[in-house]
Structure formats: C-alpha cells, structure tokens
Design a protein that fits this description.
- It is a single chain.
- The protein is flat.
- About 65% of the residues lie in helices and about 0% in strands.
C-alpha cells in the first residue's frame, strides 16, 4: 500500500497546477513538519498562486525553518506574494519576525501594512512605534482622488497603525494620533477613540486644543472623545460646532449646550436655530425661563423653512409652559393649516382656561387635520363644555375627526359616552371606528353596551364580528364562547390563534372539537392551537395530536409544542412512542417530558424501557436528557 505522504510530496513536482495545489493543501492539513523543506522550495515557484499556496501551507505547519524564506519573500515585487508571506509570518511567535514586520510597515501595499501593524500591536513590540508613526504621517497613505477600494485599503492600514499605537500607549504617539482626528476616513474615525483611551488624562489638553482647529472633522472628533470621557469642554469651544456642516455635529453640540445650562450659549443657539432645528429648540427649553423666552422670540418671527419643526419641540415636557399659550392661540388663526393643526395638538397639554374655547373653535375649522388635532386635544382636557361638540364630531365628514372623537368622548366616562358609542357601532360603516368604540364599551362593561357587542359578535355577516368576538375575551362573559368558536374558522391565522387562546382562558372544553378541526384544516398549524389543547386537558385531543406528531419533520412543525401538550394530557403511550421518532428534536423533547411530573401508572415499565433505549441514541443531546429522566425515575442507566 502506497504512503499518502510520499505521494503528496511527489505531486509537488507535477506539471499540473491543480495537482500541485491539491498536494499542498493535503500536506498543510497533515501537519507533518517533514513537508516543510519541499514547501519552502515552492516559495520560488514561477507560478504566483503556487508561491502563495506554499506560504499559506507553511503558516499552518509553523516549522521554524520557514521563517527566513518567508522573510525574504517580503522583498518580492509581487504584492500578493508579500501579503501571503506577511500573513504567514504572523502565525509564528519567534522574535526574529518582529524586525521584518516593522520593515513591512513601509511596504507600498496597504494590506501588508495592515497585517503587520495589527501583529506588532498584539506582540507588544514597542520598537515599532516610530515606524507606525511614520505610516500615519505619510501623505502617500492618503491618496487624493483614488478609487474607493484604495481609499478603503489605506484607511484600514492607518486604522491598524492607530490600534497598535493605542495598545502601546507610548506618549510620543499622542501628537500623531491627535492629527489623525483630521482624517475623515470611517475606519480611522472608528478606531481612534478606542486607541486614545489608553493614554488617560494626558490626552485631554490636546483634545481641547483640537476643538480650536479649523478642520471640522478634527473638531467633531475631539468633541465626541471628550464626551465619551465624561469631560466638560468649555462652552465657547463648543459653540462653533453649531455651524458645522455635519448634522450630527450640530445636533450633539446643541444637546451638550442644553445640558450645560450656561446662559452664554443662548444667543448662539438662537442665531443657529435654522441649522440645529429641533435639537436647538429643545436645548433652549432646558435653560428655564430665559431659554423659553428666547425660543418664543424665534417663534414670533415670520415662519421659515424649519418653523414647524421648531413648533414640534414644544411637545417635550419642557415645552409645556404657559409662556407659549398666547403664541399657540395666535397660531390657531394662522393662514397655514399645518401651523393651526400643530397649535391645536399642543394646546391639549396646557391647563390654561383660554385653551378650551379656542380648541372648540378649531374643532370647526375648514381643514380636517386641524379639526382632528382639536378634537384629540379636547379629549385630554375633559371639559364638559366640549361634550356636545364631540358628539357632533362623530358625524364629521373626515375620518380622522370621527376616529379621534370616539376616544375623546370616551374620556368623559360611561354615562356620557355610552349612547354615542352604541350609535357608532350601529350606524357607522368604518370598521376602524366601530372597533375603537367596541374597545371602550368592553372597558366600561356596562350591560347595555355589552348586549350590543354580543349581538354584533353573533352576526357572522357583520364585518367586525370576529374582531368584536376577540375583544369580548377580556370580558370573561361565557356568552363569548359561541362567537369565539366561530372565529376558529376565520381565514386569518392570528384570529384563529387568539380565539383558541381565549377559549383556553375560559377553560371551555366544549370548544375542543372545534379547535381540533381548526388544527387539522391548517397544514401549517400554529403552536397556539396545540398549546390550548394541552391546557384544556381533554383526552379527545390525544389522538389528533398523535397524528400531527407522526407528520412532524424538521423545519415544518414544532415538536416542542406537540410534546408539551401531550405531556399536559399525560399521554404516556404517545410519549413512549415519540422516544423512537425519526426527528432528533421529537426524541429529545419526549425525553425531556419524562423529567417533569407524570402519572406513569401501568406505563412505568414501558417508559423506563423507552428511556433506556434513548440513553443509547445516536444524538448526544437525546442521550443526555434520557439519562437525566432515568435518574429522576430512580431507574438504572445503561
């Protein structure tokens, strides 16, 4: 019989490139150091891919004799070979490699730089610091106008150098790392904060100086790093960021100034409000009365492009100040419907008595959105003066008004809302509006409203009959059983599932046959139906569940739910059968069922025998679970 190792060595000299490649891979996998000399010779093969494959194989063998030949390959003029060589060298721990890796930092290929830099950082080779600094300072590593692939590659190499310098924590690298904040490459910006963390407080003065830079990227990077360190840079240094070209920089600067609470920032926030938008207005609101007055002065100016955005900032808790009420009342008379609608929406949160009459007037506005916002706000006020108007709003020709009027009138309680809500259920065509009214009537639990709901639920032809039946599950009223059983025949799975769960909550065993039929009609049944059958505990469910279990296969049914239901039904014979099921999951779940309390009775012997057989299963998890179950039963483990 021929020696495979010798055969592979012989194939290395084959003229067929594919045969050589196969032999190289086989020798690499063998891990046999005797293959190293032949593979080292292939580092000089005229075929570039063969040289690369040889370097990769030597990396796996890690024979020290390969170090010097691999180092020599770093001088080849083929970039791909240099890449494979440097990658291979990083797999060796021999210190002879470090000088070569330092020299590789000057390689013109960015990929070689990246691998070398990361390896030197992990090795803790501090002699690499000057070369890493030179790599970062080299203008040729930031080629202007280069293809995006080159930009990305050089960015990754600079990022690797930054990471390594951060691991060393050498103070001489700090100026270079600070200058790197000017670099807008995404990889550089990603790793730089982590690298600078290793320098502690020594970096803080330079970060503060960087805030004064004319370079936007540098200013923003310094600001972000200072915030990460929980430092509090002076307000004058942050104010210029409010005019930054990056939206994120402006937003973060505005947020920071709002948290600082330094009044010095108020004029700057007002000046740049068109740039900072909602972030700037929210920041002003945090300054107390002075900030609110400043924002009010902005809002009283002629509306600009971002005016609506600024108005929306008043939705925050800090914006709910009576100082803004006159402005909002004035905006209700604006010619711009969007401003009127936003003002009506905001006034709902104010306790000022002037708001209610103004909102009642807005509820009659010519624009539907304005009426909708006014009606919603009137609901939050709970003022009796609005009741008649809200009743009338239930007949509005705009859907949003009618829908919000339902919720608004519901806030006045059952005595006021009952008759209007019943009217919505009886006479309104919109399913959404009727469902909203049904929600409130279920919450009120008034017998008159409940009677109407049960009448709808008992009407299969009603468009919302199924929805109402499902809402009635919360009532606990057994009159819901028949409508819920009907919903089990719905074309929508989520309705079938919810109906089954509701029947399970009611403990309604009369629904077992209907649930079984729903399960058998659906070839891809949901686990909800199965779980309910287990909860109801009716033995009629055992046979159909057994049939479904026999059909179960990976990626189709959920064996866990089936076994769980059978366990709740104490279906011991079926569980014993399941220990021999072809699906690993079924066998495992069946064994797990025997870990839980079961009344084995006359089936104890059969259960133990089945578990003992499962303890020898081909699947390790089945074996493990079966053994645990046997120990629980006090039976011997084979």
């Amino acid at each position: 019989m021929s020696d495979p190792f010798a055969s592979h060595l012989n194939d290395l000299t084959s003229a067929d490139v594919v045969v050589r490649k196969s032999a190289i891979n086989a020798l690499a996998k063998s891990g046999d150091p005797r293959a190293a000399p032949a593979l080292i010779q292939l580092l000089d093969d005229p075929i570039v891919p063969t040289r690369c494959q040889a370097a990769q194989a030597l990396a796996k063998l890690r024979d020290l004799a390969a170090i010097d030949p691999l180092i020599r390959k770093l001088q080849t003029d083929v970039p791909l070979v240099r890449r494979k060589a440097v990658a291979a060298l990083t797999r060796f721990s021999d210190p002879r490699i470090n000088p070569a890796l330092i020299q590789a930092l000057a390689d013109p290929d960015a990929w070689v730089n990246e691998v070398a830099a990361l390896a030197l950082g992990k090795r803790g080779e501090r002699r690499a610091v000057p070369a890493l600094i030179a790599l970062l300072d080299d203008p040729n590593r930031k080629p202007a106008g280069a293809h995006w692939t080159m930009v990305r590659a050089f960015g990754s190499s600079r990022g690797a150098a930054i990471t390594a310098l951060g691991q060393f924590g050498d103070p001489q690298a700090i100026p270079t790392l600070v200058r790197a904040m000017e670099d807008d490459n995404s990889e550089v910006q990603r790793v730089l904060p982590f690298a600078l963390k290793g320098f502690g407080a020594a970096i803080l003065p330079l970060l503060l100086d960087a805030l004064k830079s004319n370079n936007e990227t540098m200013r923003f990077s310094a600001f972000e790093m200072l915030l990460e360190r929980n430092s509090k840079p002076p307000v004058p240094l942050i104010i210029p960021l409010l005019k930054d070209s990056k939206e994120r920089a402006r937003r973060n600067a505005a947020n920071y100034l709002g948290q600082c609470g330094d009044p010095l920032a108020i004029p700057a926030l007002v000046e740049t409000i068109e740039l900072t938008g909602e972030s700037g207005s929210v920041a002003l609101l945090k300054f107390g009365t002075d900030g609110k007055e400043a924002l009010l002065s902005v809002l009283r100016c002629p509306p600009g492009e971002h005016y609506l955005t600024l108005l929306k900032s008043l939705e925050s808790p800090a914006g709910r100040h009576d100082l803004f009420v006159p402005l909002l009342l004035e905006l209700l008379r604006s010619n711009e419907a969007t401003f009127r609608a936003q003002a009506a929406k905001l006034l709902g949160a104010y306790s000022d008595e002037r708001a209610v009459p103004a909102l009642m007037a807005a509820a009659l506005d010519s624009d539907g959105k304005v009426r909708e916002a006014a009606v919603r706000s009137l609901g939050t006020r709970g003022d009796d003066r609005a009741i008649d108007l809200l009743r009338a709003a239930l007949q509005d020709d705009y859907h949003g008004v009618r829908y919000n009027a339902i919720g608004a009138i519901g806030t006045f309680g059952v005595d006021v809302a009952l008759e209007p809500l019943i009217g919505v259920l009886r006479f309104t065509r919109s399913a959404y509006e009727r469902e909203a009214a049904a929600d409130l009537l279920v919450m009120f639990r008034d017998p008159r409203g409940m009677d109407v709901l049960f009448t709808i639920a008992d009407s299969p032809d009603d468009a919302i009959a199924n929805t109402v039946a499902l809402k009635l599950r919360k009532s606990g009223d057994r009159r819901a059983v028949i409508p819920l059983i009907r919903v089990l025949g719905s074309e929508y799975r989520f309705q079938r599932d919810q109906a089954a769960e509701a029947l399970g909550d009611l403990g309604e065993t009369t629904a077992v046959d209907a649930i079984i039929q729903a399960m058998e009609r659906d070839p891809e049944y949901s686990t909800a139906l199965v779980k309910v059958l287990g909860r109801l505990g009716d033995p009629r469910a055992i046979a159909p569940l057994r049939r479904r279990l026999e059909q179960s296969r990976p990626g189709y049914d959920e064996p866990y739910a089936l076994i769980g239901a059978l366990q709740q039904l104490n279906a011991i014979p079926v569980l014993v059968e399941a220990l021999r099921h072809p699906d690993d999951r079924v066998r495992r779940n069946a064994a797990e069922a025997f870990e839980k309390p079961l009344e084995l009775g006359e089936w104890r012997t059969a259960a133990i025998a089945g578990l003992q057989q499962a303890s020898q299963d081909r699947e390790s998890t089945v074996r493990s679970v079966a053994k645990k179950a046997l120990r629980r039963l006090g039976a011997s483990v084979l």
